């Protein structure tokens, strides 16, 4: 399996602070059947500013250690960029790091504040620059939960959504789990990643895919799993027609 969203690099953000903890995460990933991870350190995070070169250097060094330790895991570059007005006004989008460097898929993190009015404009400009924005873990954002129409409009206009594995298996509580189910049912989810930040927690990817298969059918689980590989290859991702979240029950068939 591949995990397309993981904070495995030490000393860059709120992930592991030491190389030893990063190696523990790597061993846990392999134990759970993961052989490839996209490292997604925060850009403009609470702790540091992670530019392309710093991420490249960290990944090269970590992959070398993995080889030396005999851990069968490959780490690919990525970045989780915080949506901000400064990004809209001051940043050159080409300085941002897309998944696996040469693809057009770029992770965006919504702030924990009320949804700013400039988000849609920012995403439009990113799309005009050739990027495919991927909204990371919006199911855990309280404001998205209150205004699901906001996310529907982003997806309707070409954005993608990646949910955390823990959201579908209940690690973040029943409310987040129910909202995640609604997002999947409404064709508003395209990828699953662990969003793991530390050792000992586990990645939960296999459990998440199994839960999707149980609720929405094996075809849905396979599509989401396959989309992750398509992302890192820069290929066209499979997506269904998005629907607004309503009061109807969950669809048993995922299109």
Automatic annotation (TrEMBL):
Keywords of this entry: Hydrolase, Protein phosphatase
EC code: 3.1.3.48
InterPro entries: Caps_polysacc_synth_CpsB/CapC, Pol/histidinol_Pase-like
Superkingdom of source: Bacteria
MF annotations from Gene Ontology: manganese ion binding; protein tyrosine phosphatase activity
Reactions accelerated catalytically: O-phospho-L-tyrosyl-[protein] + H2O = L-tyrosyl-[protein] + phosphate
Protein's UniProt keywords contain Hydrolase: yes
A Pfam family that the UniProt record links to this protein: CpsB_CapC
Keyword Hydrolase recorded: yes
Enzyme class, UniProt record, top EC level: hydrolase
Family of the protein in this entry: Belongs to the metallo-dependent hydrolases superfamily. CpsB/CapC family.
Protein name per its UniProtKB record: Tyrosine-protein phosphatase
